[in-house]
């Protein structure tokens, strides 16, 4: 185990101004995705981490978006504001609040009420009033889901808000946590991240994930400081190196398992490693392909099962690969193997959990209630761990 993170003066309250020393695209040309590998330099921070931990990153908002908000507010950016939720000892300039301190997405019904009270244009007022009717609750939710604060200022220009009135509606800009994709046994002064860069369109406007595009576009390699801290996790490889590890990590869910395998190889763990990875297309989205093939060739990875959802007519996912290897999967688990899942909580983790229950019931020839009790016991023994988001 690495030393605890507490030995450093840096923390969430006092993040370390790290430098990004590498930013490379992992997908090949023709991919529908933008997944990037980042190397964060921790030299001089005294920060320590272990496989399974996460890195917290404090991002800044896009200057173009901040500029447009200032324009819509008819503000210079120098206006002093005291956003209530920040509990600041003294006011700060509006531009700093919008750039570094406040989230510009996720508007709530509160802003619609304020705009309704302030609007002077009859058409705008009628539109806002219709959204605020009790029977229009679902419509209001859908309306806000499609928009960020900038959209609302653009769509209801007659509602003039002062800078202070506007910032009082915004939430605090929170750090984003990313699963660490490296082992400190191999990279003691670096942290590697595997990040899906979020870019999409709603309401005819391009949207940008705050932190993923901060890392990809705004944090210049070896120049821009990226404030970071290590977040310790209960997620981690088996402490007993002789135990087998089954790792299910499609997409960026592969990040901690890159760390696990690096860590287990570096520590001389004798337990076998079995990785399940999935993404859209094998020729464009096989993240860290050379590394996995190298581990396989050296026997440091016992099995690598791959699921590609867009390579054939029928979509294949990691849970399908689990079911196809049910007998061997059960043999590993029955023998004391550990089972890990990382990635999308809404669908993938649920489907994987269902597959695990089904495999144990079917292969272990036990009723589903007994399989449920078996899985519960695995969780209690920390043999079934999830890092889902």
Topology:
Elements: E1 16-25, E2 35-41, E3 54-57, H1 63-72, E4 80-81, E5 92-93, H2 94-101, E6 102-103, H3 109-118, H4 122-132, H5 137-145, H6 149-155, H7 163-167, E7 171-172, E8 176-179, E9 190-196, E10 199-202, E11 205-208, H8 210-218, E12 225-231, E13 245-248, H9 255-266, E14 273-279, H10 282-285, H11 289-297, E15 303-308, H12 318-324, H13 326-334, E16 338-343, H14 348-363, H15 368-380, E17 384-388
Helix pairs in contact: 1-6, 3-4, 12-14, 14-15
Describe the structure.
With 389 residues, the protein is of the alpha/beta class. It folds into three domains: 112 residues, Elongation Factor Tu (Ef-tu), domain 3, CATH 2.40.30; 110 residues, NADPH-cytochrome p450 Reductase, Chain A, domain 3, CATH 1.20.990; 144 residues, Rossmann fold (3-Layer(aba) Sandwich). The radius of gyration is 24 Å and the shape is globular. The N terminus is likely disordered.
| Major β-sheet strand ordering | 8-3-12-1-2-9
Give a count of the beta strands, DSSP E runs of length 2 or more.
17
CATH topology description of the largest domain: Rossmann fold
What is the annotated CATH architecture of the largest domain?
3-Layer(aba) Sandwich
The CATH class of the largest domain is identified as Alpha Beta
Number of alpha- plus pi-helical segments? 15
* Secondary-structure-derived class: alpha/beta
The whole-angstrom Rg is: 24 Å
Helix share, percent: 25-40%
- Strand proportion, as a percent range, falls in 15-25%
What gap, in angstroms, lies between the N and C termini?
Answer: 25 Å
| CATH superfamily (homologous) name of the largest domain | Nucleotide-binding domain of ferredoxin-NADP reductase (FNR) module
Low-confidence stretches: 1-5
Mean pLDDT: 96
Instruction: Return the domain count.
Output: 3
Shape summary: globular
Major sheet summary line: 6 strands, antiparallel
């Amino acid at each position: 185990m690495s030393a605890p993170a507490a030995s450093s003066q840096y923390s969430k309250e006092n993040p370390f101004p790290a430098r990004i020393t590498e930013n490379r695209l992992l997908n090949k040309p023709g991919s529908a995705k933008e997944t990037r590998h980042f190397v964060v330099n921790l030299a001089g921070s005294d920060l320590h981490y272990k496989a399974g931990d996460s890195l917290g990153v404090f991002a800044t908002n896009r200057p173009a978006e901040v500029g447009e908000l200032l324009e819509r507010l008819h503000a210079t950016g120098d206006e002093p504001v005291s956003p209530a939720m920040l509990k600041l000892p003294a006011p700060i300039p509006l531009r700093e609040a919008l750039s570094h301190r406040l989230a510009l997405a996720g508007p709530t019904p509160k802003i619609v009420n304020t705009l309704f009270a302030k609007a002077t244009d009859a058409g705008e007022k009628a539109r806002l009033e219709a959204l605020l009717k009790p029977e229009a609750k679902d419509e209001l939710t859908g309306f806000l889901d499609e928009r960020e604060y900038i959209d609302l200022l653009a769509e209801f220009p007659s509602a003039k808000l002062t800078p202070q009135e506007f910032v009082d509606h915004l939430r605090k800009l929170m750090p984003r946590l990313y699963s660490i994709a490296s082992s400190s046994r191999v990279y003691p002064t670096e942290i590697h991240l595997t990040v899906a860069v979020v870019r999409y369109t709603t309401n005819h406007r391009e949207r940008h994930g705050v932190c993923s595009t901060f890392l990809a576009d705004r944090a210049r390699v070896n120049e821009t400081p990226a404030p970071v801290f290590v977040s310790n996790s209960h997620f981690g490889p088996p402490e007993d190196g002789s135990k087998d590890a089954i790792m299910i990590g499609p997409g960026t869910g592969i990040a901690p398992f890159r760390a696990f395998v690096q860590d287990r190889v570096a520590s001389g763990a004798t337990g076998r490693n079995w990785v399940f990875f999935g993404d859209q297309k094998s020729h464009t989205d096989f993240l860290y392909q050379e590394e996995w093939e190298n581990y396989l060739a050296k026997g440091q990875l016992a099995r690598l099962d791959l699921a590609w959802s867009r390579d054939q007519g029928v979509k294949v996912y990691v849970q399908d690969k689990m079911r196809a290897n049910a007998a061997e999967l059960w043999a590993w688990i029955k023998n004391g193997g550990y089972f890990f899942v990382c990635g999308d909580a809404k669908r993938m983790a649920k489907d994987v959990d269902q597959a695990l229950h089904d495999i144990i019931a079917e292969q272990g020839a036990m009723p589903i209630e007994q399989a449920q009790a078996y899985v519960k016991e695995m969780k209690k023994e920390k043999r079934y761990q999830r890092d889902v988001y």
